[in-house]
Amino acid sequence: MANPVRTLSPDVARKIAAGEVIDRPAAIVRELLDNAVDSGADDISVEIAGGGIERIRVADNGSGMSRDDLLHCARPHATSKITDADDLLCLTTLGFRGEALASIAAVSRLSIMSGTCRMRASLSEDHLIETIPPVQNGRGTIVQSEGLFEDFPARRRFLKRASSETMLCRELFVEKALPRTDIAFRLTIDGTLRYDLPRGVSLADRFTAALGTRESPALFSEIKGSGSDWQFRLIIGEPSVWRSDRKQLFIYVNGRRVQEFSLMQAVEYGCQGFFPNGTHPVAALFVDMNPALVDFNIHPAKKEVRFKDSAELHHGVSSTVRAFFRAYGIKSMHDEAAARTEKPNHTDTKQAAQIALGMDTPSKEQANQSGKTPVADRTNHSDAAQASRFAEVQAAFERRNAAEKNVAGPEQPTAASAYSARQNRAATHRPDFRARFFDYDRAPKSADTASASAPFAPAQADSDGITYIGNALGTFILVEKTGTLYLIDQHAAHERILFDRLMAGNGETQELLVPFVLTTDSPEDDDYLSSIRDVLQKAGFTAGRREDGAWEITAVPARWNGTEQDLRDALLEQRTNPQDLIYRIAAMTACKAAVKDGFVLDKATSAQLAKDALALPDPHCPHGRPVWTTLTKEQLFARVRRTR
């Protein structure tokens, strides 16, 4: 027969309830820090020994506890935070259930000291109160937990090593310290002070100090936004600050860290394209929201949250972050381009010619003393001057030949004759010396020999100072402007140009032969569609409500190629702002229509595309990737280890 239904004894029920709240030392740290923050303290110290299994001690300078508070605080569901069920609808504190101290006492030895009283509670002790000398000058509270799970060996076996539990406690400490810059936090691990976070610092300073990031606080920016019932602050690193996972992407709602994927998505969607593919920003989002619009009472550890309506908040975060990074990208790229000035590089062509001939290279002092005109200026002189220069170089060449013959000596005729033979062979295979160094830059004598004898003609800059160089690797267009080499991604450039044209035609509509019908599930959905009806109209959607309560879409933007279900998901499930919806459509359309990697463009088309790309007010594709990158002469010199 099946076992009969019976009521659990209070002792067993208490142990089960404790296991839901306290599963490891980090959970004790979490609950005690919540209580310390709620007490109004501005200085909190945490001490951990043996990974928190042996001892956890949290001291604060908050409001403290009376003797009556100590007598009842570790009873199940004893709390000072709420009085009735309606209070759950408007929570303003981190702790509220009254389960923490009772659960800690059920699985460890709990002691609380405040004023001149100390209370001890455990499985074997029931709220023993004793009088002691004043602690901390009578200010605040000291809570200590010892011997976690010592009466539950089966559960203790499932704990990790002390070092691993310490790491989890440390992460929990950082999580609690991040949003409260008005409170000083200290963490001591096995007698060593590991964190000392002062109060009164900026969010960026607290963020980098608590996380121990290798990047400077100067690389982090604070972004603010607000709505009807919410406001937020976001600390986020520049695109050069990224991680391969989301472990350093924090979401806080009303001071409590939560696992809220939609808000993580909002942050990442806002900075999409500005970070390398497959990477994530280092950021912390702090949301302050009307407590009546958020419910924390859905998870035993309060790690999850439920919003009454998160669409406006999601859109506010993503759009604000996107606007910030677009402005950041435009400013940084244009500032970098404006700061560049073309610096002349005086190439010593005379020296290059001498090296090519195998001659000794004169020093700068010798060149200055000789007063000779460099070969680089040969096009500005007459043939007589060029002939004179030729005679000088030829004489130097002959002096070298004579020197080599003298070295060989009359007693080595074989070497001299071999040298003469080499010179004769070279004369038969080498063009005339004068032609090599003077005539190559002259115009060809006839059109028939132009292709063979015409010199390389440098590309000329257009009216905007842009010199088209060519195409490379089937993807990039190379141009020069103000002494800087621009490498333009032809796909990203064309995509941005097409996108701007599509957005300029925003509002064009097409009538549907069969209207879309959207059936709402709640009055909130109807209110939302009513509130965005004008925005939908401007975006190209014609929407109206039928007599049966359903919504009918009779026209959509000309660029729309989605289905009725796509529109329903975007508007009612994801609560996507209509303008964002149009942005996505235009971005997708432009991406598909733009030239792809490997698409061959002719010279005229490439030059025009490059010119249009450099004139873009926002040099990023719709997904946020830069349209072009640059290389300066100094950067190229550094690559080849050249100083001038």
Write the layout of secondary structure elements.
Blueprint: H1 10-21, H2 25-38, E1 43-49, E2 55-60, H3 67-72, H4 100-107, E3 109-114, E4 117-121, E5 128-131, E6 141-146, H5 153-156, H6 162-177, E7 184-189, E8 192-197, H7 203-211, E9 220-226, E10 230-237, E11 242-243, E12 249-253, E13 256-257, H8 261-270, E14 280-281, E15 283-289, E16 294-295, E17 306-307, H9 311-339, H10 349-357, H11 364-370, H12 383-408, H13 413-429, H14 433-437, H15 450-453, E18 466-472, E19 476-481, E20 484-489, H16 490-504, E21 509-518, H17 523-531, H18 533-539, E22 542-545, E23 551-557, H19 564-573, H20 578-593, H21 603-614, E24 628-632, H22 633-639
Helix pairs in contact: 1-4, 2-6, 8-9, 16-20, 16-21
Task: Provide a brief overview of the structure.
With 644 residues, the chain is of the alpha+beta class. Helix 2 packs parallel to helix 6 (162-177), helix 8 (261-270) runs parallel beside helix 9 and helix 16 (490-504) crosses helix 20 (578-593).
